[in-house]
Structures are given as structure tokens and as C-alpha cells.
Amino acid sequence: xxxxxxxxxxxxxxxxxxxxxxxxxxSKAKTPAVLxxxxxxEDAFVYIDHSQDSLTYSDFVHKEFVxxxxxxxxxxxxxxxxxxxxxxxxxxxxxIKKNLKKDFKxxxxxxxxSEQTCYHHGEMSMxxxxxxxxxxxxxxxxxxxLYPSGQFxxxxxxxxxxxxxxxxxxxxxxxxxxxxxPDDDAVLEYLEEEGQNIEPVAxxxxxxxxxxxxxxxxxxxxxxxxxxxxxxxxxxxxxxxxLKKRGKNPSNKIAPFFRGHKGNMKKVYQDxxxxxxxxxxxxxxxxxxxxxxxxxxxxxxxEFLTKGLPMNNDNKKEKSLLVGFREYHTEKxxxxxxxxxxxxxxxxxxxxxxxxxxxxxxxxxxxMVLITSDDSTTLNSKNNTCKxxxxxxxxxxxxxxDEYVPRRLGMYQRRKLHLLCKLQxxxxxxxxxxxxxxxxxxxxxxxxxxxxxxxxKELAKKKFLTKQQVWKKYPDIxxxxxxxxxNETPIDTENDESQNEIRNNKKSSDEKISDEIEHxxxxxxxxxSMPLWSLTKERVENLIKQxxxxxxxxxxxxxxxxxxxxxxxxxDLKVSLEELEKSDLIQQKKEEEELQKNLLGLGKKRQLKNxxxxxxxKRKQ
Length: 621
Known about the structure:
By secondary structure, the chain is of the alpha+beta class. Among the domains are: 265-364, Gyrase A, domain 2, CATH 3.30.1360; 413-504 and 516-560, Orthogonal Bundle (Topoisomerase, domain 3), CATH 1.10.268.10; 564-620. It has helices at residues 2-27, 38-43, 57-76, 86-98, 106-117, 123-134, 176-179, 209-212, 231-242, 298-307, 342-351, 353-356, 397-441, 452-461, 467-473, 496-506, 515-523, 525-528, 537-559, 562-611, 614-620; strands at 104-105, 146-149, 169-172, 190-193, 196-200, 215-218, 223-226, 265-269, 272-276, 278-283, 286-291, 324-327, 336-339, 360-364, 368-371, 378-380, 385-387, 391-394. A hairpin with a 2-residue loop joins strand 8 and strand 9. The protein is elongated and about 105 Å long.
């Protein structure tokens, strides 16, 4: 009877502790996917009472419209830390969760994203988001996160000529996990919606993506336009100016840069640059255009040239810009040959070829607006900021970097602490396994022909630790509400089948086991579920090697500073960027060779047409 009462008391205590844990989990406020938290919204009484017949203008603006304005701004303005809008972040989360290394149809990926991240908007907008993240033509992305397998759009129409989502495929780029490092997944703060874990509040890429791929969006009361910058220049700035790497910085300044663009970029004012195309004079009556300014697409420019023809100017040759033009461009290269009269050529040269043919465009840095945190908004017009909202207008690139750097370093600190705890736990589990096998081989511990309760108590007396005790000894910095997307992999995966057999046979036993002892049995699974062939000397030697490796990793990680961790990641990413530049140069050479062949072929055809065939000449004579 006394044992039965003790078991009941233990059960009551365990139930009470479980209830407390559940209540603590419920009480933990989850960060919602909108700018304002639910508690603050409810406290501010921003919801309208729809039971009333009438509604005042002030109630509509301050209680209903304000919610739409905040949510719209949050959707349209990217985050400072990862440079992503919520829809883009959902795509990144889904790609990481699915480990998308093989081609996957965009239409199917859209459905997967909606399922995994509680996406509440139309399929077309999500499909367009995925398409935009994979575009790599001039003027789109310097480092697209997704690989374009198919027609994702070209510079002919600025991406509008992309194929339907059911015909194109995508996957993560080779450098994707170098930007979003796998070791950061465990230390991110994940959102929860409708009882489902979804994407994090923000990712922490190795470099600020908002400067690499740029951003554009119009919210309610706020808009943003950030041009692309050279990722190599940003990496060099972080390495030499922030992390204090030895040597001279090869990149002096960070200026707008668009991958694959052959034109010049000149600074006009402090926050204004001019992008130029390329135009050369071939003869007295011919001009060659081989590049257009940034964000000016080939089809649009063709329409501009067509308007400059005499037939589109009421047959007045004085107002026309040119007599005619020919096109030899491809999807990636621009190539127009213009034909002018001598008078038109003189006027064009007097006014300037770039001005006459509109081969200049401004690239402004005057409206670089980003969200820095998620909270309620209060406008401060003097500083161009929102108090407590974290939405701010930045004057230059270096202001963005100054805010990004301390946050990224803080995340490296979290990553280091997490990895240290993880390595310590793995080392401890390996040590427990080694000692367990050694004691069995030395016949200091006999496990066969014993009841589970007796065996568990004997392991406890021998001071073997359960998995739960190991976690208590080396606690993680991450709270239960922000666990990793993918569960932590066990050290040994050889014994999965034996583990399942033991778990299935546990409940079939006739003996009544208390919750506490059952908890201990589960904690010793990593020892008792090892297969018989692991109880050998070779296995002990292998465990000793693994232990030494873990100790080396621990010592190296303890010595490594967070600055050095960041340096290693940036150097690794820099290598993949150099490979990307080499492949771009090879592609450009091939395209130039093909263009020259086509031009030579066209020249020969023209000569034949002008001269005429010999048979025709004889007939004429």
C-alpha cells in the first residue's frame, strides 16, 4: 500500500509539473506576423464595434484603417536584417525546410509554401514572388537566391515575358546555404500562427541582402527604392573595415552595381548616380548601341526608336531622330544599329548622343526605407523615423551597414553559445556510451536476463546520465517556443530499428511502471537500444576517436571569436562569388563570338544582295 501511495504522489507531482509547463507555454506571447502584437492592439481598442449602425471618420481612421496601413507597410517594405519581405521570407523558410536541391515546379512550390507558412493571399502573387527571386537578367538580382530552370523572364521586357509557373522549375542556388548558414537555423526566433510553426521574424544572412539585390515597394505612407550594390565590395568592407582583417581594402567605395551591365555608373551628387548605356559611331550615318541604362528594357527602347522614325512624326524629317534601325540583340545582350542622315548625325552630336537617344538614367539613394523591428508606429518627421516602429529612411549605405553589423555579431554570439552547448552534450553522450560498453566488456555491468526497472536503477547507481540529465547539465540558450525547424540529429543513427522495437514492447509488459521510472527508461534509450554488435572493442575505439574529435572541435570553437566566425563565412562566400564571376565571363565571351558570327553572316548576305547574282546581271544585259 505504501508503494502504491508513493506512486500516486509521484504521478500527482508529475501531472502538476506538466500543467505548469503547459500553462507557461500558453502564457508565452508568440510574435505575430504583423507589425503590432495582439496584446497592444487589444489594449489600444483599435477594433471597431460592428454592432453599431453608424461609424465616425475618426473611428474608421484610428481603429480600422490603421491596421490595414501597418499590415500593408509590413508587406511592402523589406526588413533591414535579411532584406526580405514576408512573402519572400516564407519562400526561404520553405526551401530550407524542404532542402530543395533538385528542380521543383514553381506552381507546386507555391502550394508547399502556402501549406507550411499559413500564406493568406493569392497564388499568383506568391508565384510571382518565387519567379522574381530566381531572375538573373541585367537589372534584376546580383545574387538570385533561387536557380532559374526555364524561362523566368529576360531584359527584353524586364521579366514580364516569364513563362507560366506550371512550366518552370527552381531550386536553391549553390551559395544559398552560405548566405543563410545552417548553424543559424537553431538560434532564430520563429513565429507561430494557428498552432503551426512558420517562418522566423527575420533571417540573419552573412551579408545584408537588401544591398546586394536591392528592394522596391510602396506601402501606405511609406515607399522604398534601394538599388543593387556589388556583393564583393560589401564583403571587402565588412572584412577590412569592420572585422579589421589585415591588408588594404581592394574596394574603396560602395557604389550601385548591376551584374552583367556593361555601361558606366557615375556619381553626380552625394546620393544620385547616373547610369549610362553604350553608343559608338560606326560611320558618318550609322550608330551602334550595345547597352542600355539600368531598368530600361529592350522592348521599351525599341518603341522609343520607332517613335523617332519619319513615318511617326507626320513625315517631317526635321523632327525625326533617325531614318531606320536594325536589331541584332539576344535575350542577354542589346544590339541596335541606327541609320541617320548627315544632318541628323550633326544635330545628335551637337546635343549629345546620350541625351538625344536617352541613354542616361538616374539611380537615386534618396528613398532607402527599411523596417528594423516589429512594433507599433509613431511618426517622427524630424528624423524620418517611426518611434518604436523600427521603420527608418537611411541617407547612405554605411548607415544601413552600421545598424546591420551589431545585430549580426549578436547572432554570432548566440550561434557560438548554442554550438558549444551542442558539442558538450554530444561529447557527454559519447562518453556515457563508451563507459557503458567498457563496463559490459569488463563484466562490471550485466544487462541480460534482468527486468527493466532493476536495470534502470542499476544504471542510476552507476551514475549514468539520462538524455534529460545531459540537457540539464548543458542547457541550451534557445527557449521551447523557438526550437529549430529540423530536429537535432542524434549522434548514432544505426540503432533506429532496435529503438522502435523496444518502444513498442514497453507498453506490452504486465508490470505497472510509474511515470517517473518510464521517464528514466526513455532517458536511457540511447544506451539500452544499442545493437549487440556495438558491444565490441572496435566500437569502443571508434567512440574514443569520436570523443577526441569532439574535444578538438570544442577547443577550436572556444578559441574562435565571433569576429573570426563571421570572417570564415564571408571568405567562404567570396570563393563562390569568384566562381560566379568566372562563369559570367565565359558566357559573355561565347555570346560575343555568336554575335560576331551572326553579323559577319548578315554582312555577306547584304553584299550579295547589293552586287546581285551573276545570272541576273547577264539577263539584264
